[in-house]
Fold this sequence. Notes:
Blueprint: E1 5-9, H1 13-24, E2 28-32, H2 36-43, H3 54-63, E3 67-70, H4 73-78, E4 82-85, H5 100-113, E5 120-124, H6 132-145, E6 153-157, H7 167-172, E7 177-181, H8 184-193, E8 201-204, H9 206-237, H10 241-249, H11 270-283, H12 289-300, H13 303-312, E9 321-325, H14 341-350, E10 354-358, H15 363-369, E11 375-376, H16 380-384, E12 389-392, H17 397-400, H18 404-410, E13 415-418, H19 426-431, E14 435-438
Parallel strand pairs: 1-2, 1-4, 2-3, 4-5, 5-6, 7-8, 9-10, 9-12, 10-11, 12-13, 13-14
Antiparallel strand pairs: 6-7
Amino acid sequence: MKELKISLMGMGYVGLITGMAFAKHDFKVVVTDAISSKVEKLASGIPPFYEKNFEENLKDVIERGLLTGSTDNAAAVHDTDVTFICVGTPSRPDGSIDLSYIEAVAKDIGTALKDKKKYHVVVTKSTIVPMTTEKVILPILEEHSGKKVGEDFGLCMNPEFLREGAAVHDALKPDRIVIGQWDKKSGDALIKIYDDFNCPKLRVSIRTAEMIKYTANSFLATKITFANEMANLCERYNIDVYDVMKGVGLDFRISEQFLRAGAGFGGSCFPKDVHALVSSAKSVGVQTQLLDAVLAVNETQPLRLVELAKQAAGGVLKGKEVALLGLAFKPDTDDIRETRAVPILNALVEQGAKVRGYDPEAMENFKAAVDKPMVYAKSAKEALEGADICIIQTEWNEIKELTAEDFKSLMKTPVVVDGRRTFDDPQGIIDAGVKYLGIGWKNE
C-alpha cells in the first residue's frame, strides 16, 4: 500500500470509478457521499450504477481494504493527503452548469482544512467551465479554512476522460492525464499519484485544464453531428454513409473515431458540456455558431428514425405496435441521461403508436425518469413479438445477436429501423426478407 492517501467527494460515476482505479494502484482510498444508502451498499461491493466490468473490480479493492465509503467529508479530508471533488454539475434550463454541489463540498473541505496542520491538496475533477476553480472553489476554500492557497494548501484541476461503457478501461489505462496546477508543488502531488499510469501527462494552468475537457467533448460531439449530417445527405444519393466514413476515416488527420452516423449523441457529457460551453461563451460575448448547429442537429436527428418508421408503415403510425430496443444512451451502461430513446418515444406516442421497450440494464432508470406510456418487455425477443416495426436505438450485444429469422418469426411484419448500424451485414438481413431501414443507408 502506498503512503499517500486519497479521498474523493461524490460517489457517482466519476468519483467511484476513479477511486477504484486509484485503489487498483495500491492507494488507500475513501469515497464520500451524502446518501447513506449508497455507502451502506458499497460496503457489500454493490455499486450504485451499472458499468461494464466495474462491479468485479470494485469488489476486489473493497475486499483488499483499499477502498471504503463514508458520509463524513470532514473525516475524509483529515485522514487523507489529497481530496478530489467529483460531484455533479447538472445543467440549468439556460444550459449553464449548476454549481451548488461544488460549492457545498468546497465549503466542507475548507472547514475541515481549518484545523488540519498538514499540507493538503484539493483537486477539482468535476467538469466545470474555465475560471470556476479560481473564481468559485478557491474563494470558498480560503474563506472557510482561513488559509492561503500555495502556502497552506495546494490546488489543481484534473479533468476526467471516461467513456461510459468503457470507463473501467479508461480509468485504469488512460490515454492522457491533464494536470491543471496552481503551482508546481500542487502539481507534483498529482504526478506522484499518477506515477504508475503509463500515458502522456500534460501540466498546464488550472483554467487551461478546464477548457481542455470542454474542447475535447465539443469536438467529438461535432464529429458525430458531421457524420449524421452526411448520413442524411447520403440517403438522398443512395449511398451507404458507413462506406463513406470508412474512406474518410482512413485519413490519419481525421481518423474513423466518432464518425459512426446514427440517432445522435446523448449521455452525461456531450449534451451537457456543449450546452455549458455555449452558455459560458455567451456570458463573455462570444458567438458559437458551430456549436449552436451541433446542438440543433442533435435534437432533430433521432426523429429521422420515426420518419423512417412512418414511411415503412405507409405514412401512418397510429395503432402500430413498435418495439423500441435500447433505452440507455449507449451500450454497456445503464445511463439514460439525454438518451435519444426519449425523443423517439415521445414522437411515437404523439403519433398514436403503441410502444414496447426493452433494455438489458437501463429499464428501471427509464421507468423512473420517463412518464410516457410504454410496455416494458423482459427481453429483446419478447419486445419483438407481434410488432409491426422495430426501432433499434442502442446496439447492445443482445440486440446484435438477433437474426433475420428472429425478426421474421416474431414480428407481425419484419420491419427494422436501425439507428446505430447494429448489424455487420445489413444487406444479408435484407436478402433474408426483412425490410431494413437506417440512417445513412440506401432506404429504397
